[in-house]
Design goal:
The protein has helices at about 15-30, 40-50, 95-105, 125-130, 165-175, 180-185, 220-235, 250-255; strands at about 5, 55-65, 65-75, 80, 85, 115-120, 135-145, 155-160, 195-200, 200-205, 215-220, 240-245, 260-270, 280. With about 290 residues, it is an alpha+beta fold. The strands form two sheets. Strands 1, 2, 3, 4, 5, 6, 7, 12 and 13 form a nine-stranded mixed beta sheet that branches. A hairpin with a 4-residue loop joins strand 3 (about 65-75) and strand 4 (about 80).
């Protein structure tokens, strides 16, 4: 099959959205998991958001004048994030996914690092990413639910304000070694971010605690993260949904004890620089 890789255009959003929905639905249902996208419209909304964001590089695979796959690379900050990458179920296992990955890897050359998250049950994607140079860094669990407890005394949990961005970026730099300020300014305001203040300082933030695909969180320590999760659930009035790196064993046990449940497991993979976090954190599907 003759495949052409080209930059994504706004007119591709509907086709990309359908493929995103059908590809994720197919692999999830084969393994008895809930699909990540509830409809083709939801996939199209994400594709439209990314294609029209100048800080996201998008490519599509085209065969016979028809879009058969897409991939995206977020470029908001020094570390780049890959995804979602999807190929039409009718044209999978023909090398299209590799071509789409090679395109964003080439685009990301020179960045501090490139990262992605994949479903642990998807052996094909794990093998593809490993063969392209990505290394496993963290086991993740998709957690859902609302903590039964309240934030402890001494912590203030409130929605993030514009004036919090500098403190949040500095906190991320201390914990991860890099900032996600561009992502926070460009994406998080529409997703309902929260911060934690202890003794008047920002000690934790979550960009989207109720939306695991695009939400990440950073905290000075586990107590700050617990306060953040409990307070965000109370303030938002909605169940939490986030990706927890499970090597944070104490935080993982706390989440389970608070009534949250594991939906599925995933894997964080990376190329380039990677420093083990010096604090508590949650990832998005990008990293």
């Amino acid at each position: 099959m003759d495949i052409r890789i080209r930059p994504a255009a706004p007119d591709d959003a509907e086709a990309c959205g359908r493929i995103i929905y059908e590809a994720f639905k197919g692999i999830a249902e084969r393994h008895d998991f809930r699909p990540d996208f509830p409809s083709a419209d939801a996939g199209a909304q994400l594709a439209h958001l990314f294609i029209n964001d100048p800080k996201v590089y998008g490519v599509v695979a085209e065969a016979g004048g028809r879009v058969v796959g897409s991939n995206f690379l977020s470029e908001w900050d020094p570390v780049r994030g890959v995804g979602p990458i999807t190929v039409d179920p009718d044209t999978q296992a023909r090398g299209t996914g590799r071509r789409l990955m090679e395109a964003v890897i080439e685009r990301g050359r020179g960045a501090a690092g490139v990262r992605l998250v994949q479903d642990s049950f998807n052996a094909a994607s794990l093998s593809l990413y490993a063969s392209l140079g990505f290394e496993v860094k963290e086991p993740l669990a998709l957690m859902e639910g609302s903590p039964v407890g309240e934030p402890p005394a001494g912590y203030e949990v409130r929605p993030m304000r514009e004036g919090d961005h500098t403190a949040a970026a500095e906190l991320c730099g201390r914990v991860h070694g890099f900032s996600r300020a561009g992502e926070l300014k460009g994406l998080a305001p529409a997703l309902g971010p929260f911060v934690v203040l202890r003794e008047g300082r920002v000690t934790a933030y979550a960009s989207a605690p109720n939306s695991w695909p695009l939400g990440h969180a950073v905290a000075e320590g586990e107590d700050d993260m617990r306060a953040l999760l409990a307070g965000a659930a109370r303030e938002s009035g909605e169940p939490l949904s986030f990706l927890l790196p499970t090597r944070q064993a104490g935080l993982f046990r706390w989440c389970l004890g608070e009534g949250m449940r594991v939906v599925k497991t995933m894997t964080l993979m990376a190329t380039g620089e990677y420093r083990g976090p010096r604090g508590a954190y949650l990832t998005s599907v990008l990293y």
